């Protein structure tokens, strides 16, 4: 095992990987034909969106290039919209409306080819659920959808005439032609997740009475005509793939038997099937958050594709376990291991497997931060701070330059995700002495309690991976059981001091109208608790009836509620928001967990603001500002995580003492600066370590925009 910072990620060829890999894993590195093309191995980076627009093509390019460099045999772009009227405005992506677009995205294919991978591009049209705001034409619906079903869409479509169908098919064919001209090897028709061809297939959308509606043969007509025409146009030298949702498990798609029948009808026109799951309104089936689905859970549906085709099949399943990947390929369940999330978390997964460097893999935790972050703010990953920053900040996931000040001893105070990330990256940047001091017996910070919530164990991988790195980086010394105060820091001998003391749950709730403490809502009392007190410190939860008061609206309160339910408490989850845990909708777990909480006898109480806590219950203000009292034996406060920045601010206020003790620089990172998502805490630690020798590391260097 080479030391992590001596891990040479220089150029490679796929032949070299095949020569290197242990025989046992050789089936994962066996080439396979996809129509007229040959993929060098079975690692397939499937299409997924990063939220990058046509003005940010370098971000898209460098992100995909890095996956090819990491050894993926096929690397796809994100969605490429084929026509203005098919665009879903909620997320930016590629466009291939004309030849100029094709020229603009051609360098992405070139970059993927640099490393011997095939380049795939997913052509997409959202049909009747498009939201072409700037185009200002009603979207093209398969049939009239001016019904209550439009609840699921943001725009109301117009019924397509036969002329519209012909015109849209022309646009698909033109887009396919342009994709080939741009150098793409595998050209997709997106027929999943309510994309246009699926809208023709799904009775939910398709209520036509002409030759495009009614029996399956008619509903499949649009897809079949499209594939015939695309095949005639580019099929001689370009592989044609269909991303196909095999099992809708709800509205907006096909149930599995009709899906398999469709595959049989279209199979002669297709070179590869990329199998997705789920239709409208149940994207968790496709995104399989780790809280709800084991790794590989999608196989229960995707493996059935083989009943309908002999063509290669790729499917995703949050695969990170190499033995499961191997079984999946050797059993013939799938021909390619598809990945979005595992390759976002670790673009070098295939090369690490080839090298037998399994410990080095940054395993996806299935938080699904990536899937929603690009819609909300900036694409990111809970495990991999470099995801999305490959071009913008020039961060390579495995390569680190030696820092100009690497000879300075570093003290990191706090071993949560941010502190661990920072310490390990500093070591990889050549720092000889990186001491990480942690108050508790174990590192992990807030992951120590969070990963103990029912089903959230995979999130602990964030810590396990960094502990593994720290063990293998001789420069990193971890000192547990040591709580440092300002004097302790001054005495320690660090020249660079980084405070990563995190943000424990606030022990006092605050009235949102006055910003003053809520009477009685104080976790120094026996019947008022914080999650850390309950889960880590063993503070007894008195009585049976417990309220969880949640102002964060993410997964944490759902998990804490279930933790208490599992221990026999009757729990009511109370929130000031009208929609309980609305931020957890984004992670794909909210509906399921809310259902589980109700099924276990719990209660969800939205739109209540905490006003007072007494020994026998809590008083809330409802939407009319009337008081509602809920009787309970205990209340768990999940109002906010409060940055523990006292140590940092104390040190900051004593520049002379710091100078006397040889401290040249003082920084704060992660939740100590401000409470944030896990991905942002990791990013914060990583960012400081990457920029530790910049003119002012406390402020991020400007990042490239495009
Ligand atoms: P982040 O997400 O920013 O990494 P966490 O809250 O997860 O923050 O972790 C902060 C860590 O810092 C915790 O493990 C906590 O025990 C530790 N810590 C807090 N104060 C001190 C201190 N004074 N000395 C050493 N460790 C500390």
UniProtKB/TrEMBL annotation:
Under Gene3D superfamilies, the record lists:
Aldolase class I, FAD/NAD(P)-binding domain, NAD(P)-binding Rossmann-like Domain
Q: Name all NADH:flavin oxidoreductase/NADH oxidase N-terminal domain ranges.
A: 28-356
Entry EC no(s)? 1.5.8.2
Task: Please provide the record's keywords in A-Z order.
Answer: Flavoprotein, FMN, Iron, Iron-sulfur, Metal-binding, Oxidoreductase
- Spell out the Pfam families in the cross-references: NAD_binding_8, Oxidored_FMN
Q: Which GO terms describe its molecular function?
A: FMN binding; iron-sulfur cluster binding; metal ion binding; trimethylamine dehydrogenase activity
User: What cofactors does this protein use?
Assistant: [4Fe-4S] cluster; FMN
The family database entries (PANTHER family) matched by this protein are listed as: 2,4-DIENOYL-COA REDUCTASE, 2,4-DIENOYL-COA REDUCTASE [(2E)-ENOYL-COA-PRODUCING]
Tell me its family. In the N-terminal section; belongs to the NADH:flavin oxidoreductase/NADH oxidase family.
| Protein name, UniProt field | Trimethylamine dehydrogenase
Question: Which organism is this protein's natural source?
Answer: Capillimicrobium parvum
The gene it comes from is tmd_4
């Amino acid at each position: 095992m080479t030391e992590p910072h001596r891990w040479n990620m220089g150029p490679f060829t796929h032949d070299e990987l095949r020569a290197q890999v242990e025989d046992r894993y050789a089936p994962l590195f066996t080439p396979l034909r996809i129509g007229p093309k040959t993929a060098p191995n079975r690692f397939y980076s499937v299409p997924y969106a990063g939220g990058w627009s046509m003005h940010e093509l370098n971000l898209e390019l460098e992100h995909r290039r890095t996956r090819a460099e990491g050894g993926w045999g096929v690397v796809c772009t994100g969605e490429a919209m084929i026509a203005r009227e098919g665009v879903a405005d909620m997320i930016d992506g590629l466009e291939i409306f004309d030849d100029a677009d094709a020229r603009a995205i051609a360098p992405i294919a070139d970059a993927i080819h640099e490393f011997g991978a095939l380049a795939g591009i997913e052509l997409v049209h959202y049909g009747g659920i498009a939201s072409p705001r700037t185009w200002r034409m009603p979207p093209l619906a398969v049939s009239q959808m001016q019904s209550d079903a439009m609840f699921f869409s943001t725009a109301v479509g117009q019924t397509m005439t036969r002329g519209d169908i012909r015109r849209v098919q022309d646009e698909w064919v033109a887009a396919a032609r342009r994709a080939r001209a741009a150098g793409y090897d595998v050209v997709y028709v997106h027929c999943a997740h309510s994309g246009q061809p699926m809208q023709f297939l799904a009775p939910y959308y398709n209520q036509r009475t002409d030759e495009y509606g009614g029996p399956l043969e008619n509903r499949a007509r649009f897809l079949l005509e499209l594939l015939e025409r695309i095949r005639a146009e580019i099929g001689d030298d370009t592989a044609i793939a269909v991303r196909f949702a095999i099992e809708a498990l709800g509205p907006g798609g096909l149930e599995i038997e009709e899906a398999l029948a469709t595959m049989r009808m279209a199979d002669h026109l297709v070179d590869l099937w990329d199998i997705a799951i789920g239709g409208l309104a149940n994207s968790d089936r496709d995104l399989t958050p780790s809280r709800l689905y084991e790794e590989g859970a999608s196989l229960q549906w995707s493996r059935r594709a083989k009943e309908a085709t002999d063509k290669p099949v790729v499917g995703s399943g949050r695969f990170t376990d190499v033995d499961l990947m191997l079984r999946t390929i050797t059993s013939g369940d799938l021909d390619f291991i598809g990945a979005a999330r595992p390759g976002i978390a670790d673009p070098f997964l295939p090369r690490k497997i080839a090298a037998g460097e399994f410990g080095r893999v940054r395993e996806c935790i299935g938080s699904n931060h990536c899937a929603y972050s690009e819609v909300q703010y900036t694409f990111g990953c809970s495990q991999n701070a470099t995801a999305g920053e490959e071009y913008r900040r020039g961060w390579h996931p495995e390569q680190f330059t030696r820092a100009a000040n690497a000879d300075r001893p570093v003290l990191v105070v706090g071993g949560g995700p941010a502190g661990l990330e920072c310490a390990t990256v500093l070591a990889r940047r050549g720092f000889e002495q990186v001491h990480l001091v942690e108050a508790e017996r174990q590192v992990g910070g807030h992951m120590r309690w969070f990963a103990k919530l029912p089903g959230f164990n995979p999130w602990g991988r964030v810590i396990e991976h960094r502990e593994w790195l720290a063990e293998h980086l001789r420069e990193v010394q971890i000192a547990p059981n040591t709580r440092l105060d300002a004097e302790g820091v001054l005495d320690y001998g660090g020249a660079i001091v980084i405070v990563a003391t995190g943000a424990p749950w606030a022990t006092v709730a605050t009235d949102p109208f006055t910003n003053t403490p809520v009477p009685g809502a104080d976790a120094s009392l026996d019947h008022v608790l914080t999650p850390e007190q309950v889960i880590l410190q063993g503070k007894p939860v008195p009585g049976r009836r417990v309220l969880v008061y949640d102002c964060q609206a993410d997964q944490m309160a759902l998990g804490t509620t279930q933790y208490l339910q599992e221990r026999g408490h009757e729990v009511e989850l109370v929130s000031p928001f009208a929609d309980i845990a609305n931020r957890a909708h984004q992670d794909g777990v909210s509906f399921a967990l809310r259902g589980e909480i109700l099924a276990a006898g719990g209660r969800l109480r939205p739109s209540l603001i905490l006003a007072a806590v007494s020994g026998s219950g809590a008083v809330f203000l409802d939407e009319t500002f009337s008081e509602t009292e809920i009787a309970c034996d205990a209340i768990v406060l999940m109002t906010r995580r409060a940055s523990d920045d006292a140590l940092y601010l104390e040190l900051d206020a004593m520049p002379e003492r710091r100078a006397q003790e040889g401290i040249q620089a003082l920084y704060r990172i992660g939740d100590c600066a401000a409470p944030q998502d896990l991905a942002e805490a990791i990013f914060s630690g990583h960012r400081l370590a990457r920029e530790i020798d910049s003119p002012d590391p406390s402020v991020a260097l400007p990042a490239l925009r495009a």
